[in-house]
Amino acid sequence: MTTSTTNATMTVDEAASLAAAAAPHLAASSPSTRAAWLEAVADALDRRVTELVALADEESHLGTTRLTGEVARTTGQLRLFAAVLGDGAFLEVVIDHADAAATPPKPELRRMLRPTGPVAVFSASNFPFAFSVAGGDTASALAAGCPVIVKAHSAHPRLSRLTAEIVIEALHDAGAPEGSFALVEGRDQGTALVQHPAITAVGFTGSLAGGRALFDLASRRPAPIPFYGELGSTNPVVITAAALQGDRAAVLARGLAGSFTLGVGQFCTNPGLVLVPAGSGFAELVAEAANGTAAGRMLTPGIADAYQSGAARAAAHPGVRTLLGGDAEAPQSGVATVLATTAATVLEDPEVLLEEIFGPATLIIEYADESELHAVLAAVGGALTATVHAAPDEDVTELVSRLEPLAGRVLFGGWPTGVAVGWAQHHGGPWPATTSLHTSVGATAVRRFQRPIVYQDTPERVLPEALHESNPLRLPRRIDGVLELPA
Amino acid sequence: MTTSTTNATMTVDEAASLAAAAAPHLAASSPSTRAAWLEAVADALDRRVTELVALADEESHLGTTRLTGEVARTTGQLRLFAAVLGDGAFLEVVIDHADAAATPPKPELRRMLRPTGPVAVFSASNFPFAFSVAGGDTASALAAGCPVIVKAHSAHPRLSRLTAEIVIEALHDAGAPEGSFALVEGRDQGTALVQHPAITAVGFTGSLAGGRALFDLASRRPAPIPFYGELGSTNPVVITAAALQGDRAAVLARGLAGSFTLGVGQFCTNPGLVLVPAGSGFAELVAEAANGTAAGRMLTPGIADAYQSGAARAAAHPGVRTLLGGDAEAPQSGVATVLATTAATVLEDPEVLLEEIFGPATLIIEYADESELHAVLAAVGGALTATVHAAPDEDVTELVSRLEPLAGRVLFGGWPTGVAVGWAQHHGGPWPATTSLHTSVGATAVRRFQRPIVYQDTPERVLPEALHESNPLRLPRRIDGVLELPA
């Protein structure tokens, strides 16, 4: 499978002691050096795309088209963080010159962000590339200058090993220190990783239950460390009456059906709760549009079982109608499910009915009036996204003000699946969507693994190059309170 | 004491429900509006400085000179955050324009940071103004657009109430929404505050034990929230042999004596561990310089008791010499203590000897060679500061690389007490110095209470003004990947 003789998998103790030894070397590397490492990893993954996709499809059943796109997304992320390094704003250089005349006299202060040290990354089942071994957490931690130890996901062990071998070889060939990257496997190793004293932060994408358990481990350490987790999301969608006028209802129904069944519904941005006006008949249109969607094979037997029991539990709830769904014929397959109920029913039992069902299911919630709509939104937990479908000239200011507190991304039109890679992107939201303010997606992912350090009255020969007065790295800087761009 | 009829103290439930109601109004306020609120609070505190200082001195015994300076520092902090609001970079506006030709097509994304919601602030005993009711946590949370509920410190209840009344009146007169600020008192109320569902983050300055307990409460909530704590610090100082040449030894000894006894040693930046070459006689010089320092009255009987028992415990340790110290004659007073030992002794029992003693004490640790110095530094916990005293032309690169991982501020020359207020300042460090990457000091204090939100394909009439294409607020922005300053 690979020409490398590197053994990609090791024990936590081995990996952590190599990472701790590598950390000062990574911290001393220049941003442009690390950008070259990230580019090298991206290029190596792109070169091996056919082999990677074939193996990923064997293990994940997500299909070669989707997986080929996901490799491109993953290498795009690596290159975005290389661009972040090239830009230099991520170092947040701030210089206050000395002022001996001030009362009290002000010392010279030169501040920047520095890497925290070795980072643990837990990869996800549903994105075997983009949120896995070489995904956003790994890319942003390496960009920050932190060694990375990935805990492989058990749903794609062979792909994890191959990806790790490619990453290790590319980093080695590009001159990165030994210990910059390692892979560990197994639940016990994951637990040991979060608790290892050398680890300074954890990145995680996965289930609410698994994430909460690791968050608790990270918080209960003798020296607690930050846990950056993305855990679960229902992604509420609100459709107004005006949005359903004319033939728009059928268009929206087809759009929703395409979004919630995409990738067998195994996206954290799956639109799981859709609020529509009562009497609109929208739920029936969605069922019609989703009818005939082939039941796809889900990632693992466990995920398929959880999907079927979650959908069955909601369907069996008094007041919930099943418009589409049923038992899977093939093992491990996910049949599209469309459920419908009223806002009043949801408000009687929000804990059950507003829970995420991970898979190709959506619950259409019919609201009688604005106050019911607002009451349901107040009961929805934090989410990655919130979507509005309204008529072009409709006043939705009030509605948006109720969606903003719920989610990290607010969409007008469109559907939440599909998360563009770019500087402005954000993928996060209040608990339980994420545990933290910034996540593995978007340029600020880097800052999770950086801490400020300020040098007071320090001779230039001792300072990092980024803080030299002449600005040799051509960084954006704040000088005596004023933000300045390099000439 | 005040002309206001406002009752500054209320229950957590009252305060939290007012804060939750105020939150959307604060979130909708413009940065310049909030800057005016902060200026109004600063002006009101400055106008009442005499009255505030008198009351603070009655409760804290810190003296009117120090306390008058601390009011100036506090209003300086409020005005710094007003300047942060005026600058606008804190909103981190990032705009990626749509690209319909991309594969897949890219939507328009407009991103900024938005306030998280109501914030709890626990004030400190040792800074009754600057890290208390109207201190850096409060100033930065209000700047971010978050309502604040302060838990008063029991060491200065009357000052807390007066300060709160002044803050509430100033905010009210400046037009801030009711519920923007409240004060609660008592340990039970503090516990309830951290656990209240409306609270989105906690700021804390205080002891390691108290901070850990509240951190655990915040982490164990059904929906965990971030706990931004500053807990304790030993602030190691390393003095090289070359730095002690000639009359420099006596100068450094006097400087250290002045720093560790300042404010009866009740500073989180107190230089508690000082590493010097064995045989330098430096410890004796420090004892001589500190001899005769008047025993000041400490903040509370509990702090005085903890200081005396902590100093006695270290002094009684085999291998530790007491060069200065003794029992206090007046109740609640802190007598300067100078202890000395060897690096070898410290390495036998680092947990006891490297523990912070809060008060006017310093432990001089004599190292025989570089390897002993490095071994002690490896055993020191995270700290707010690390200081180097070396000769001007000495190569200290290796030493600095060992200090950087320990602390958030590295000083050359000088002493760590005294934390200048400014854009470049940082006051934090690895556990147990702080629990988080950014703290209440410095311009990035604001970002602890902001979360990213991105608007996808959203009509301008619904967007916050900060995200309008024409840049009406004249903000620094990143447009399609390029950082731009307002013309």
Short descriptors:
Aldehyde Dehydrogenase, Chain A, domain 1, 2 domains, 38% helix, 5-stranded mixed beta sheet, globular, 7-stranded mixed beta sheet, 15 helices, homodimer, 487 residues, disordered N terminus, alpha/beta, Aldehyde Dehydrogenase, Chain A, domain 2
How would you summarize what this structure contains?
2 copies of one chain form a homodimer. By secondary structure, chain A is α/β, with parallel strands linked by helices.
Beta strands of chain A, count: 19
β-strand amount of chain A:
15-25%
CATH fold title of the largest domain in chain A = Aldehyde Dehydrogenase, Chain A, domain 1
Annotation field: number of helices of chain A: 15
Q: Could you describe the 3D structure shown?
A:
Two copies of one chain form a homodimer. By secondary structure, the first copy, chain A, is of the alpha/beta class. The first copy, chain A, has two domains: 12-231 and 436-484, 3-Layer(aba) Sandwich (Aldehyde Dehydrogenase, Chain A, domain 1), CATH 3.40.605; 237-412, Aldehyde Dehydrogenase, Chain A, domain 2 (3-Layer(aba) Sandwich), CATH 3.40.309. The first copy, chain A, contains 15 helices and 19 strands. Chain A has helices at 12-28, 31-47, 49-60, 64-87, 136-144, 157-173, 187-195, 208-220, 248-261, 282-290, 301-315, 343-348, 350-353, 370-379, 397-403, and strands spanning 93-96, 109-115, 119-122, 148-151, 181-184, 201-205, 227-230, 237-239, 273-277, 296-297, 321-324, 333-334, 337-342, 361-367, 383-389, 407-412, 450-456, 477-479, 482-484. Chain A has a seven-stranded mixed beta sheet with strand order 11-13-14-9-8-15-16, sandwiched between helices. Chain A has a five-stranded mixed beta sheet with strand order 17-2-1-18-19, with no helix packed on it. In chain A, a hairpin with a 2-residue loop joins strand 18 (477-479) and strand 19. In chain A, helix 2 (31-47) runs antiparallel to helix 4 (64-87), helix 3 packs across helix 4 (64-87) and helix 3 packs antiparallel against helix 6 (157-173). The longest helix of chain A is centred in the N-terminal third of the chain and has 24 residues, at 64-87. Chains A and B meet through helix 1, strand 1, strand 2, helix 8 and helix 15 of A and helix 1, strand 1, strand 2, helix 8 and helix 15 of B.
